[in-house]
Amino acid sequence: MSMQVWFVLMIGMSASWLIWFLYRPLQGNDFNLQKSNIALGKQRQKELEQDLEGGLIDAQSFSQARDEITQTLAVELNQTTDNSFANNQSQNNYGSFAFVLIFLSVFSFGIYDALSPDKSQKLESVEQKVASLSLDESIIKLQEHLDKEPSDAKAWQMLGLTYFELDNLNESLKAYEKSHQLDENNVRTLVEYATTLARLKNGIFDGKPEKMVERALSINPNSIDAIYLTGLIAANQQDFATAERQWKQALMLLSLTDPNRQAMQEMLEQVQSMGAPQSQNGLMVDVTIPEQLMRERSKDDYLMVYAKAATGMPMPISIVKIRLKDFTGRVILSDDNSVMPSRLLSQAKKIIVVARISQTGNAMKQSGDVDFASDPFELKGTSRILLDMTPEPEVGEEPLLPTKESIQSLEQKVKDSPKDAESWALLGYSYISIGKNKAGVAAYNQARELEPTNVSLLIESASILAQLQNDQFRGEPIKLVNQALQLDENNVEALWRLGLYQYQQNTIDLAIATWEHTLPLMPSQSKAKIALMKTLVMVKEKHSGKTQKDETVKLTVNIDIDPSIMQNRLQSNDFIMIYVRAASGMPIPIAIEKMRLKDFSGKVTLSDNNSVMPSRLLSQADKIIAVARITKTGQAIKQAGDIEVRSQPFSLKETAKVNLNIK
Description:
51% of the residues lie in helices and 14% in strands. By secondary structure, it is an alpha+beta fold. The longest helix is centred in the N-terminal third of the chain and has 33 residues.
């Protein structure tokens, strides 16, 4: 039999049982109840008469008890008669049973129709179709669907979310924009669209994302996602009262079994003040700021160093904010500078430490801010970390040279403010970057005259002058380094350069002594300290005769130069410089070969014999980059008009040959 026949039989049986249950058991029940009451009354009278004959009661008590039995029997018989009348009425109310039967049949057939396989297949949504697919498969399925149904706002929203999960934010935005155009009042689309926009802005909801969240909340004031984001925006702006209020509301709207409830509760607890006890423990954070970055920033800019949870809300746990001019190289984060008494640094587990240089000092990251974040680490057992803000060079990245407009702006600035030493130094650096070395040196001299006790300026000037004489610190550079040490005898940058000068002068013992004195002054585990430690080991081995050049390690660099470039450059008698440097860290050459372009045969072979420093041999290098530069001056610093190409990072253990094309 078919499913329909079975279903009809089941309905018939159910209806029959229901009618029998409601009607049959009550029929005739009134007659039996009356007979039962009369028999019970007679039995009680007989027992009463026996008590009178036995002398257990007197005549007066007998008369009162008999009257009570008679009255009780009359009442019970009257109630039975009423029930009989009501039952007779229900027996005659066949319309009620007919209604139950019809309603049961119609309702059952409705349920069957709704749950039938054909109907469910017709109602299957695109969301159900992609639920079991991978993200890539989901995109293909959604795009196929949208080719047929381009006005399906829900499908566009799902496509945007899928791209978001794949971290393809640009395609995600396109899909969300299409979904938003089709359904402007869809709260879920507004929230996800805003989140994607903020993701592109490093988590900042300023502008359009914030307005979209406000729009979502105005459409549905009880949208948990919109309420949560409103609280997050407030928390990022350090408006913790608003964040607490919003997250309390979100927590009330979440069901008791919702998996997000615990996370929401934890975030709420973080913004509530509960008067937790203070701790004296702290985390020392040593921050290395490269000289070039210091030159680019104003001394009145702010340095903000803060710790935040490795996962979850990006709100700072503990923060220190000072002016760059007041920064000594280290800050200490502790419970004393925790943002909220209820969210202490000592209570944190896995954290990230961030250093940010900002012109405004605002809590939210602004355009032009520069920051660097540590890798996540366990706070327990860690008392000191280093943040090195030196940017890692990108392969193929060309250094930014000052523009004509920027130099003219600086020239006007020193003309208007002739006592601004910082502007003079920046102008000097700009001049030297474009090959105007004489003007650059003069500008640096002017800056030092204005601030003769500025240690950073002395060291910067020494470094620039050394670069102009092939990184040699003899003469004026070492004089400036010594002046810096007279003002600050433990200045790490000055001590490093003093040791380098001593090494260049072949006074190895003095260099070793200087660098060993420098090491304890440097931040633990810093890149610079690790590099100096390696240098010391190699220098000591060389000094004791243990370091030997490895003549078997060689790198052949083949260079193909475009004929038009070759012809133009030959006329000006240019140089070609081929060198290798470490793939990360300081861009100082390890091994270099320099010659006139007219003498270049198309390839060079670099080895330990071309190493710049005996303690830093090519054969000992790990990951390196090969660089070829055509230059008019042949100077170590890249000049305006130079042409430079670089290889991808590689290891000498993997290859002994690299090809470069200058086009």
